[in-house]
Design goal:
Structural class: mainly alpha
Strand content: under 5%
Number of domains: 1
Shape: globular
Radius of gyration: 19 Å
Number of helices: 7
Amino acid sequence: MSINDEPRWASDMWAAPSPAGPAADQQGSPLITTKPYIPGRVPWTWRNVLIGTAIAIAPQALLAFVSLFVSGGTSHTKVTAGSAAATVVLTAIVDAWLVTWAWRFSLRAYAMNLRAWGYRHVGADVFWVVPVALFSVYVVSTVHDVIVHPPQQEVVSAFPHSTTGLILFVALACIVAPFAEETFFRGFVFQGLAHSWGPVWGAVASAAFFAAVHLQVTVFIPLFALGLALAWVFHHTRSLWACIILHMVFNAIAVLAWAIG
């Protein structure tokens, strides 16, 4: 099934949101996560994604700019278990901030529950959809590695080669990142962009954004391929759990390669 194909029960997936806007109580205040999710009726659009993302990443972008200006682009921090733990905690805080603003401009704004992000039952098709997507990503990554010979992702250097370092790396790569990034990029960003532009362009734009925020040009193409694969998986299964599983497996393989390398 291609990403441009619609499931039978979701022919109105990208229909315009109701002109009535967010549900409100008798006093006019928005209701919070009370409206059940109806497949095919995700109301937020690219405007919600743009505003929510801009607010969410502004503090992080400012801190990155200040850090770059102060350090002059160089870092001499010694990698220890403590610094690795700090990386995990800081990443979890940043991801929680992103998800909070995604919630504010999607579920909170339209009084919907977590099912609208994709937290709902995943069918048996996950057993072939995830392997196909994973295989496709590794084909692209292998070809890219042969041609470009990119360095490892910079986050890898934040963890010492020790038992503690491995545990912390697994916590970040296989727990924190899959849940937070899939919630934000597929549950919020992809669905909002696909609502406005259709699933194909929504997948392309969200995948490009996903790859870009990792801030490493040398691995943009493999991460872009991963973003496309994750969007396809979500579009096919309508379940964020399938995307989380794919993301976990992809990162787990990377962690294993790092551990035995």
